[in-house]
DNA sequence: GACCAGGCACATC
DNA sequence: GATGTGCATGGT
């Protein structure tokens, strides 16, 4: 069923072309992954624009920027006191480790890389997986609030399951394929934004359910 | 004015 | 390991 819903959503919406950063560069994806924590993407875009126009669009520049200046730039994305500190942390990490994260790797080494990312302050499971998948094209499925709701409402899965367990369920039901993981997460977000997972039950939701 | 938005750290049990 | 709370801002 997990794979079937993917097909239905893909037929419905087509390719999503995430990550929706303007330049699509790796560092911008990493930055966006932090900034979007509990925040609408349109506000992230404002913060990203601020960072670019202030010349704080590389890890080097973030690292050397005044915390206060950085904080001000990311304010539209909320939690700016936290996120500005997080950005400095991931900037330092990125400068040291970027090259090793680009390479394809075994399952166990990927697990280690994820673990190392999780040790950076401000990087939780969802953010780490977003970075691995969207910035480094590693085969990791991202679980977010939308995925939980989809799982709960349409797949008969307990949406309160721990993150890693849910991830395991999705990954074991899908081919180990970066493009599939990438598109599926984006499609779920698109679906949830337009469908009954928000309020009421819209036409799109009906159509999808009808095909199940 | 309430509620939500592509979470996370930390304390506590 | 599970649960609760604080963290900030902008749009609807």
Radius of gyration: 18 Å
Structural class: mainly alpha
Strand content: under 5%
Count of helical regions: 12
Mean pLDDT: 90
State the low-pLDDT regions, or none: none
Q: Overall 3D geometry?
A: globular
Order of helices and strands: HHHHHHHHHHHH
Largest sheet: none
Helix content: 55-70%
Number of strands: 0
Q: Roughly how many Å apart are the termini?
A: 8 Å
Spell out the key features of this protein:
212 residues; mainly alpha; globular
Account of the 3D structure:
With 212 residues, the chain is mainly alpha-helical. It is built from 12 helices and no strands. Helix 2 packs antiparallel against helix 6 and helix 2 packs antiparallel against helix 8. The longest helix has 23 residues, at 80-102. The protein is globular, with a radius of gyration of 18 Å.
Short structural description:
The protein has 212 residues and is mainly alpha-helical. It is built from twelve helices and no strands.
Task: Give the helix/strand layout.
Layout: H1 2-13, H2 26-35, H3 41-53, H4 59-64, H5 67-73, H6 80-102, H7 107-118, H8 125-135, H9 145-154, H10 163-173, H11 178-194, H12 203-211
Helix pairs in contact: 1-11, 2-3, 2-6, 2-8, 5-6
The structure holds a DNA duplex (13 and 12 nucleotides).
